[in-house]
Specification:
- The structure is a single chain.
- The protein contains 12 helices and 12 strands.
- The chain is of the alpha+beta class.
- The protein folds into 2 domains: about 160 residues, Aminopeptidase (3-Layer(aba) Sandwich), CATH 3.40.630; about 160 residues, Aminopeptidase (3-Layer(aba) Sandwich), CATH 3.40.630.
- The radius of gyration is 20 Å and the shape is globular.
- The relative contact order is 0.16.
């Protein structure tokens, strides 16, 4: 690792917008040399950076996130300015300058951190913005307080799973989790939108950086009902992959697996991000854990041809029309 990358990773750790997904080791795992980090320095220190990952489809150059990378976007060093107006002026100037460094592309699509709020310079440069939502337990330091905020119906499901003899194990294989994950997609008549080899690569990087944990809800006969895969650093834990056996839904084991993941996260992270889905039936599950709704921005820009090609691929994926290798391009 060279000095430039070390300095960038230090910025990720200190930036309010920085996340595990911005780290250089994560980018290498998910994009393998198909990424670029734009940055601007002042006094030999990086003050703003923008990691980009690339994909080519039908001859079009796309800047878009790889599968299982829910957040990227611009990260800024903590401001030393006292006055809000001066801090905002610095942000405006840095973001505008960074935008001018973007390589040529046909389509841009990224989802930014919940802490990124100033997209005005991007608006001036003709980017578009869509507000999306996730759910976050913002403070895991007092788990009694966290439990108090869990909805009664969710508590009942967690307790019912325990009453039915469901236990949560953490030492089963990644393949078993992916088996359940694949069942979840099959139930929706969709192929698994990433290859197992791709997940293995992410998992290997996470193990090397002490950044993941798996939770399996198992009954007394050894059947695995549900599984949860989280990634984490000191700042936040993220629910990345999950799955459940649709024939065993009556046990509500997935709620117990998620609760055990939250409890573990309280030992290693400050917050827990459910990576909230915009689908109504999934959103209600995450809301039930007492998490706070947090908006974040999906930023896009592109010509009509690129958007049409992108939408055609995405629509075909939604209908299960592409093999998993191609589907992995368009998961998020």
């Amino acid at each position: 690792m060279n000095d430039e990358i070390r300095q960038y990773d230090r910025l990720v750790d200190s930036s309010p917008q920085g996340s595990l997904f911005h780290k250089s080791w994560w980018l290498e795992a998910v994009a393998q040399n198909k990424y670029q980090i734009l940055s601007i320095k002042k006094n030999d220190e990086i003050v703003v950076a923008w990691p980009l990952t690339f994909k080519k489809i039908m001859g079009l150059e796309l800047i878009m996130p790889p599968p299982l990378t829910p957040r990227l976007g611009i990260i800024l060093a903590p401001s030393r300015k006292i006055k809000y107006s001066e801090k905002l002026s610095d942000e405006m100037s840095l973001i505008s300058e960074l935008t001018r460094l973007l390589p040529k592309h046909s389509l841009f699509n990224q989802r930014f951190s919940t802490e990124f709020t100033n997209w005005l310079p991007l608006f001036w440069d003709h980017f578009k913005q869509t507000t999306r939502y996730t759910y976050v337990i913002e403070d895991l330091s007092d788990m009694n307080h966290v439990w108090e905020n869990v909805r009664y119906s969710t508590k009942r499901k967690i307790n019912l799973a325990i009453k039915n003899g469901i236990k949560v194990l953490t030492d089963l294989s990644l393949d078993k989790l992916l088996d359940l994950n694949e069942l979840t997609f099959k139930r929706q008549k969709l192929p698994l939108p990433y290859s197992r080899e791709y997940v293995y690569r992410i998992d290997e990087a996470c193990i090397k950086n002490n950044a993941r944990k798996m939770f399996f809800a198992v009954d007394e006969s050894g059947q695995i009902h549900a599984a949860v895969y989280i990634v984490y650093n000191q700042k936040a834990a993220y629910y990345l992959i999950g799955g459940a056996d649709p024939t065993l839904n009556n046990y509500d084991a997935h709620f117990l697996a998620l609760w055990e993941a939250v409890k573990f996260a309280s030992q290693v992270s400050h917050s827990f991000d459910f990576e909230g889905s915009m689908y109504e039936n999934i959103e209600s599950v995450f809301r039930g854990f007492g998490a706070v709704q947090k908006p974040y921005m999906e930023i896009t820009k592109g010509n009509c041809l690129a958007k049409s090609a992108f939408n055609a691929y995405r629509n075909a994926w939604n209908k299960g029309g592409f093999p998993s290798k191609i589907c992995s391009i368009l998961l998020r």
